[in-house]
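Q: What structure does this chain adopt?
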Amino acid sequence: MSGSYADFLEALRIRESSGDYTAVNTLGYLGAYQFGEAALVDLGFVALDGNAYDNDYGGGFTGKLDVYSAADFLASPEAQDAAALEWMPLIWGYIEALDLDDAPGHVVDGILLTASGLLAGAHLLGAGTLRNWVQSEGTLELSDGYGTPI
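A:
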């Protein structure tokens, strides 16, 4: 099955938040794409506060795209969509840096790897964790805080 980039982003929104731009989960991930603090730091929406992985957003929002708070981010589907459009090429850069960009087309533990699947896996658990899973040939059972497998 193949689809457009817009289809991929829609599927990601649905998977992450049922498409709810105002969603905040119990781990502090925000919006339709469930961005965490580390991603928002990488994207320039949040200033680094010393721990980008605690989702407390203590460094504050930078004002990028008129987003000065978590509430502003949640109220702006436009900012969230722009963040996602900027995030995917950034994640792909991380995938390339880890030499995983040649993985599409390979089968790992019965799963055909695709570029969109790699992007989704890296969005969920990070590119480094994705690399660990691919290198383990799928033997590592890696999942997020809710048990969603990579």
